[in-house]
Amino acid sequence: MSSSRRSFIRQSAFAALSAVPATGAAASMLRSSVAASPRRQAKGANGKLAVAHVGVGGMGKHDLQQVMSHPQVQIVGLCDMNLQTLATAREMVPGAAHFQDWREMYDALGDKVDAIVCSTPDHMHAPISMTALNRDKHVYCQKPLARLVYENRQLAAVAASKPKIVTQMGTQRFAKAERRLGLTLLQLGIVGKAKALYGWTDRPAGWWPSGQPRPAGNDPVPEWLGWNLFLGVSPERPFVKEAYTPFKWRGFYDFGTGAIGDMACHIMDVPYMALQLGAPKSVWCESPDATDDEYPNQESIRMSFAATPMTAGELPFLWFDGGRKPDLASIGLPTDLKLPNNDGAAIVVGETGVLVQPCDSAPPMIFRNGAQVRFDDPGVKTTNHWHDWVDACLGKGMARAPFQVAGRLCEVLSLGAISSRFNKKTLEYDGAKGEITNDSDANGWVRRPYRQGWAVENL
Ligand SMILES: NC(=O)c1ccc[n+]([C@@H]2O[C@H](COP(=O)([O-])OP(=O)(O)OC[C@H]3O[C@@H](n4cnc5c(N)ncnc54)[C@H](O)[C@@H]3O)[C@@H](O)[C@H]2O)c1
């Protein structure tokens, strides 16, 4: 790279977000970042942000640790449908009120809470987050933002209608310097206009069960487990010990969003935002062993995005999981490409080079004519994703993955998850209406009916 180019990158890196033409997803991000409306007075002791957590095991425990490490936070409520898990969290925050049912927590805390953190399985993200938004609470919700296309669109729309409310999807890797560097470099056009986009992860193989029939059996529900609360908006089914909770719910259509929903939030966020992508025009999937109840063990998904100012025309996106990967040689990359782990990566093939963005803590790699090119790191800094959100709730700085943007990305991933059920069928998508137009069965998965008694306003 020429020294003038290096210097350009160094000088421009911090200004990159505002330098990008404000269209598509990037525009939403910019709009949400400038919408720094005066915040309300926080309700916690000494003006601290009063936060309540829903789901405090697994990632939820980490979310709790991170949020409560902010000096301006008071944790006022803890909720988990598993009373054993709740007991552990109560030891971490002895003064907080505690509940098994998040709806009772919302009613009991009422005005005493400013903000909600949702770290439950995917199918309950939208109901829990939307109910909080309906009550004008700030929300931090784990990725993927929601399981269903419709839920993602509604969360994005309702968040956009509430400029005083701060939202953030729990993609903490997006706050890392390595990923923000990739975003900046792509926005600066380091590989030229994009011609193709690839992504992959090793999930689900070896991580959670997939491609199986519905688990057989009907075990007694332990008295400490709220099975009905776990099911939430999804249809009733019998409890089967160790089949669903914790963690294994990911492989089921009723609870999870499959490998693409689980990992592409962490992998495709950088190129999705940098290339200002919207909704795909079509999606196609080769998924040999999906069942009526579970996502497949491996799949290849193909989407096509309309051209944007950052692409060289219509953009093909190819996604692989469960051990499948893009053919690196045909992309012009070394076949022994070194990545930090098996989580996966995104590849942007541009007119003048190729950018590889690993999923985890490693900087992007740039290739030209098959050889890696060095570039100066412009000094982008890692921030704490949870603290960014708390600060923004308190009126300082901005949340970097607000629902307005996260919802657009996750709408795409939820569409990919739908395509898993329809092996080798091209599904046409109308992004303005949020409808699959050529298959009514597939369109029936854009939005699912909620179980009786679980209706949520705006969903
Ligand atoms: N950002 C990340 O790096 C990251 C990592 C892991 C998981 N996640 C996300 O976090 C979420 C949880 O994943 P996990 O692996 O921790 O799952 P998990 O099953 O291990 O934990 C979920 C927790 O929520 C509780 N829970 C379930 N339903 C509930 C309900 N209706 N009300 C209250 N509590 C409920 C469970 O008892 C459990 O404590 C998922 O959306 C997942 O995608 C994010």
Shape: globular
Structural class: alpha/beta
The CATH architecture term of the domain at 3-21 and 175-207 and 258-373 is 2-Layer Sandwich
How is the biggest beta sheet arranged?
A: 10 strands, mixed
Cofactors and ligands: nicotinamide-adenine-dinucleotide
Q: How are the strands of the largest sheet arranged?
A: 14-13-12-11-7-10-9-8-15-16
Query: What would the CATH topology of the domain at 3-21 and 175-207 and 258-373 be?
Result: Dihydrodipicolinate Reductase, domain 2
The number of helices is: 16
Give the percentage of residues in beta strands. Answer: 15-25%
User: Which CATH C-level class of the domain at 3-21 and 175-207 and 258-373 is it?
Assistant: Alpha Beta
- What's the count of strands? 16
Give the overall pLDDT as a whole number. Answer: 92
- CA gyration radius, whole angstroms: 22 Å
**What is the percent of helical residues?**
25-40%
Low-confidence stretches: 1-36
Task: Calculate the terminal CA-CA distance, rounded to whole Å.
Answer: 50 Å
